[in-house]
Design a protein that fits this description.
- By secondary structure, the chain is α/β, with parallel strands linked by helices.
- The chain has a five-stranded mixed sheet, with helices on one face. It has a four-stranded mixed sheet with strand order 6-7-9-8, covered by helices on one side. A three-stranded mixed sheet has the order 10-12-11, with helices on one face.
Amino acid sequence: MPFALLSITRTFIRTFYPFFLKGDGMRLEVRRRPVKYARIEVRPDGEVLVTAPEGFDVDALVEKHRGWLEAKLAEIDGLREMAELGFPVNGEFYQVIHGRRARVHERFKTVILSPSRDEVLSCLKRFLRKELLPLVERYAGEIGLRPGRVYIRYQRSRWGSCSPKGNLNFNVRLVSVPPGLREYVVVHELAHLKYMNHSKAFWELVGKFYPDYREARKELKKWWSILELNPYWRWLGGAE
């Protein structure tokens, strides 16, 4: 049974379970919704989310999936250690230096963070644009597509997207992942210019130009968790 109630509102309840993990336990959010079946998931930052109808026994659901939850949370605990190694750039962790002007030094593997979040994000966007545009041009030519504009934005829920007008949107967080994973995201979004869905034909097109897309998807999930846990990306996202 949960032993500490953190907060209650009309729509959700947060509780804390003393699982025997490396950390202090499990953070749980319960959302009461008029759904037919209860759902349980682990967010990238390690919080467990249960969506269930009123009156549903959440404790029994958590206990039923206890083994899976502990394994998943232990995995995230390991990613948390990695996330605290520095600022991730191209899949490596650079040393962080605080200064007046934001800058990425590939040669010295350092990132200078200025006090301004906006300035740091602008610096990262410029850095990423130089990496992404050649990839977009290359794969668009190979696939035989003509994309519209390319935008780089800070996004909280996805690596990229494709608009009905043919414009491509990429998350500035891609600056942190290994270059090979960025290639997959580029191919994925370009494929949406032809198929605005995730149909079999869409995945066949993706697989033709990026055969290891299944492994890339798994790795990107890990990197999303790492960035959710990374203190510098948390600061850039507005966390104090």
